[in-house]
Fold this protein.
Amino acid sequence: MTWISDDAVAHLRAVAELPDFSHTRYQLQREIARGGMGVVYEAEDVELRRRVAIKVLASELASADAVERMRAEAQTIARLEHPGIVPLHDVGLLPDGRLWYAMKLVRGRRLDELNAPIPELLRIFLRICEAVAFANANGIIHCDLKPENIMLGDFGEVLVMDWGVAREAGAKDALVAGTRGFMAPEQERGDASIDATTDVYALGAMLRSLLPSKLPRALEAVCAKATATMQRDRYATARDLADDLSRWLDGQPITAYRENVIERSGRWLNRNRVLVTIVIAYLIMRVIVILWVRR
Amino acid sequence: MFPTTRRSVIAALASDDDEQRRRAFDTFVALYWKPLYKYLRVARHRELADAEDLTQAFLAKCFENGALAAYDAAKANFRTFLRMLFDRFVANEVKASQRLKRGGGTESLDFTNAEAEIAREHDRGGTPEDYFQREWARSVFSLAVERLRDESDATRFAIFEAYDLDDSSKASYRETGVRFGISETTVTNHLAAMRRRFRAIVLDILREATASEAEYRAEVRSLLGVDA
């Protein structure tokens, strides 16, 4: 039998796993990532002369069930046409039965790799909330929201990725999938009560993980409300969560937190900084003028 | 989706039909004799003559007394079962200092060639089990390459060999095309077709070498290195 060197064995492993796109419009360029469901490659679409990302189902998972799950994921993404959700271009089956789909190639970095001040983080977070609210309004619950699944493009794009465990709201199957630390209690239990508040929980956990440990009380309260144990105690939708954060950014009162008089005054002073400065400057000048006249 | 026509060799080893059992055993030997022999030589540091005798005696015993039929897919994968059976056999043989018996159609094993291979291998790190796993992977790929060679035309196989087997080959698609008198596109098409076929053969071999769907999937994952 032919002897194969260690290097050739490693190469053959890669060759045997490499998907065969020779009869399609795509030419594989390099592997980008590996996940639970499959491998993502960067590829060239030779018809349109553009780069795309292609996700291919892992070979050992190519059972009828796995193909159906990944097809459902592709259909979910295709249904969700929103600037904050990665667009899907194409879907197909490889000669060996593995399913693949081509999507926009996002150049940039993941949210967990970003180091930015709180206001910038919150503005990005608001856009994530908008995309999630759109999906939820269309009956789709992402179920695996975490910073690693958010891509920030080089030109300001904010994209929610990896819809591999997304489910229809209220789906009866008790499939427990997601990431601990971001998974809502009802999701961890495999309850059928999964709905928009399940994604709200993950958004709250994600917000908490992105912000520094010492936070203004109002922001703490937003995180706490989003990650409440009982679904009824959370924001009803990602849009409600985003609205409360927007109010905080605009210096307005938020629904998650009742301020005392001092905090309310402080927020009012902070919000009307210019007016307060002008009034104080005017009063100081008046005092100076009065004192000067009396001399 | 998955190759279902290939029968599991592991299941056929327990067959009552002698001819079927013999064919299954031939495939079993082709896949496992080298990993077993090299395992003794490299991971267990046995002398050359000892390792030869023990490997042949073990294979002969496997064929004659049906020891492999005791395999239970629910307890371990076949590879682990076989390695443990082999370890136990070697320990017992050494204790009893019995004269080792050869046979079972294993007289033609090319130990000189296996020794030459050992001399060319570099990666000997890890546990004995890791070494056995690596040699088993090499054996599966070698068998797949042999089957691919047998069924392919010479030009296609030579292209596959140049790009996927020969570490020293640095030829471009254009140069290879000139060498075989075909276009660059034909070279890449041939290569893609050969790789596709190679993959299918590897999956066939794994189907033959495993006893259950779960074990098959686990071995595909283990051999092709894809995380589930």
Summary: The domain at 108-258 of chain A is CATH 1.10.510.10 (Transferase(Phosphotransferase); domain 1).
